[in-house]
Every structure is written in structure tokens, then in C-alpha cells.
Amino acid sequence: MDESLPQGTTTAPQKGTVTQRAIDQIKAMIGEGRLEPGARLPTERDLATQLGISRSSMREAIRALTVLGVLEARHGSGIYVTQLEAGDLLETFGVVADLSRGPRLVELLEVRRILESTATALAAARISADQLAEVEKHLTAMNATDDPEEILSHDLAFHRAIVASAGNDTMAAILEGLSSRTFRARVWRGYQEEGAFERTRREHAAIHRALVAHDPEAARAAAASHVGEVEQWLRTQLQP
Amino acid sequence: MDESLPQGTTTAPQKGTVTQRAIDQIKAMIGEGRLEPGARLPTERDLATQLGISRSSMREAIRALTVLGVLEARHGSGIYVTQLEAGDLLETFGVVADLSRGPRLVELLEVRRILESTATALAAARISADQLAEVEKHLTAMNATDDPEEILSHDLAFHRAIVASAGNDTMAAILEGLSSRTFRARVWRGYQEEGAFERTRREHAAIHRALVAHDPEAARAAAASHVGEVEQWLRTQLQP
DNA sequence: CCACTCAGGTGGTCGGACCACTACGCATCG
DNA sequence: CGATGCGTAGTGGTCCGACCACCTGAGTGG
Hints:
Two copies of one chain form a homodimer.
Chain A (H helix, E strand, L loop, with lengths): L17 H14 L12 H8 L3 H13 L3 E4 L3 E4 L4 H5 L2 H7 L3 H24 L2 H15 L4 H18 L3 H10 L2 H11 L4 H17 L3 H22 L3
Antiparallel strand pairs in A: 1-2
Helix pairs in contact in A: 1-3, 2-3, 5-9, 6-8, 6-9, 6-11, 6-12, 7-8, 7-11, 11-12
Chain A binds a DNA duplex through helix 3.
């Protein structure tokens, strides 16, 4: 069947590195509810003792879970479990966008097109007056300046406000990663040099109209077309 | 002449922890193309010396990038950059599914419904004979057993084969995380106790028919309905 | 009653030591 | 001559102990 290895403590699969085991164990503690969101963990030294490993290895495990958005270390205070909200856990999604290039950029944009068109459709049905005002604020601000940096900033906020109105925080967090600053800046650099300003402006206006009219289908089409334009442009860039 | 500037050009901005800086620098090296996918990094000791930090801190940085799927450490050999493919970077996506609970599970299922319905529609248009055979293999195997464990396994493979036929690796990797074993096992436990076997079988058959007919719209509807069923069930479970 | 001080505890960093494993060249054997 | 085996150098993995930087809260003084 299996082994003849005596287990020192309760559960020790004895697989992989010591650090990896520590990562899994802490993750399991949270998954099983033994550690609530926001809870404070024992000290690094205590944790290391409990799991029978050195503090160095335990620190590596904690660092790993920190970059994953699961834990949060506060210098001088302690280690805490994050709220485990979508934003916390999906922050690493931005890394994917930053490190992707070539064909994968197109794939990412395709995913964004699918999700954002649906999110925009949902927003058209659910958006409130206040949320719509927020959207309009960034729309007008975007059209009132020529600074590319500022345009990009308001463009991001424009879409972010719309997606937030869709009411699905997880989807919003994913799209946030897919629209991260460095990601868009890379694509926009060349895209806007082809006189895409005016087209972008029209597309944004179309999206806005659909939101005002609370027309999900029109919103979906407008958003899909908007992202699709960039997607198609990028596709041609890869086939010189 | 270096400090008091918002951002340095070459040297470190002296922000955050030393380890975090190391993480960013390595990430930047890869992003700027100074480290190609599959390339071998200098040794931990050399890297630590280059960045002027201790080996312990460097190890934490490496470990962090390892769990993110950016680096891969081979004991006794060296540290290498992964191929940076969708699967490598999106493996951490499974953590989100594993640690999510309550309302966020519904949100995740909603995202999956949107993506998988589109992926299934794409698959209907593009699927080849070989790929279709693979899908059918798992479909029949799923209907030929009563072992819940085996059913779940073939169910996963069934959808995986379909999504793979859509031709978007990034989307496939995301859906893989959203359909991870532990995630589905948690949901299915209760779902299948309500006689959902037969319904699931019919829904799978409908998806298969649409694939055979190369009918994207039917495939989209069938897939959306399939995931939506589970989604709705889960929604009711949260409102007792 | 409030503000300040300061000591203890915590995460952050460092350097060194040793172990486990891999890779590669060299000597050996067929 | 080629294939095999072995040994060694180099790599990541682990551990230890020390010190630093920072936060917290109890105690002190006004």
C-alpha cells in the first residue's frame, strides 16, 4: 500500500521541501476555518516550533503566502490573515499580465473582452445614479485633456467604475489585473499613435449611452467592440 | 544625487523591505527580457551579492517567485525561469478557489459560467475529430461508473478537453483553477445528493450534441445552463 | 486626566555552517 | 575504443544564533 515511515506528529505527508509543507499546512489551517480572516497568527518563532522547522524555513513559507495575498505581515506587530477578499487574492493576477507577451497578450485581451462585455452588460442593468455619475466624471475628464498619462488614468477609472457596478467583486478583481497599468501602457503606446483617440472616444460614448439607457445588450456589444478593436490591432502587430 | 526623487532610474528606490525589492528587481529583469524563459539564474549566493542583500533574504524572494510560478528551483542544479506559459503563472489561481467561501463561491461560479460558455462555443466551432473523441471518451466513462470519485475525475477531464479545444491557453488555465479538484469536490458533495446525477448527464449530453453539430450558439447555451444550474443551487444554499 | 517614556515583543536582516542532491569529468572496466 | 562507474565540486535546502527596526502597551510624570 504505502509506506513504513513513522509520522512524527499528526499529519506529515513528508513530501516536497519543508517550506512547501509549511505553506500547505498554513493554507489548510485557513481552509479548514481554524484561522479566520483577519486573525493573528502565532509568532514566526512559535509557528516554526509548532511545525518542527527552523525560523528561516517558516519565514520563506510566510513570505510566499504574503505575496499570494493570503497573509499580511506587519513589522513589529505580527502576522495576520487577510480578509481573503477577491482583491487580496487576485492581486497576483497582475503579474501574469505584466510578464505575458506575444500571443498570450492576445489571449489575455480575449479573456478581458469576454468578461468585460458581460460585466458592462450587467452594469447597464444594475447601475445606480451615483455610480453613473462616477462613470461620467471620468468620461468627461478623459475627453478634456491631451496628456496621455492622464487619459490612460481616467480610461482605467472609467472601466473600473463600470465593472464595479456589475456587482461581482471577483470579476472586478480579475479585470483589474487584466487592465493593470503596465499592461495597458505597453499596448496603448503603439495603439494610440494610429489616431485611435477619436475611435476610442466614440466607443466610450457608445458604452455610456447604453448605460444611461439601461440597455444590457447594447452595452455588451459596445464593450466587446471596444476591447475587440484593441485586440485586433494587437493581433496584426504580431504578424508583420 | 539619488534620493528625494520619486523614482530612480537604475538603483533601488529604497522602498519596502529588502526582500520585496529583490522580488521586484528579478521580476523586472524578466519583464525587460534580460532573463529569457527557461534561462538559468545565477546562484542564490551570487544573486544575493549582486543585489547587496543576504542569502536569506534572497531565498525568500526566490521562494516567493517560485510559488507565483515565475521561477523554478531545482535542487542541486540551479534556479531557472519557467516558460512563463499560462499554466505556470495561473496555477496560483487555484488558491483563490480553495480559500473562497460563501458569496465569493457564487461569484467564482459566475465567472466560470461566463468563460466556460464562451469557451465551449469556441470549441464547437473549432473542435477536431481527435479532440471530439477525447471528449466522448470521458463522457462515456463518466456514465459507466457509480464511483463518485471517478465521476468527478471524468467530469473534470470532460470539460478540460472541451476548453482545450477552444484554443485559448490562458482561458483554459483560468478555468482549470476555477474547476480545481478541491473546489468542485466541496460543491459537488451536497449538489449530487439531490439527484443531480441525471440532470448532469442530460446537460453533458446536450453539450456533446452541440459540439458534434458544430453549433456554437447551442454549445454556449448548454454550457451556460450547465454551470448555471450549480450556481443557482449554490445560491440557494447560502440563503437558508 | 493626558502626554510622554521606555521596555518588551515582533517581524526584518544578516552571516555562517552543514546537509542533500545534481552534474560533470575522470578513471576504470569491458 | 566505448561504455560504465565513481568521486568531487557546486548547487539549492535547512538550520542556528545574533542583531536591528518597528510597534505596542504599560508605567510614569506632568
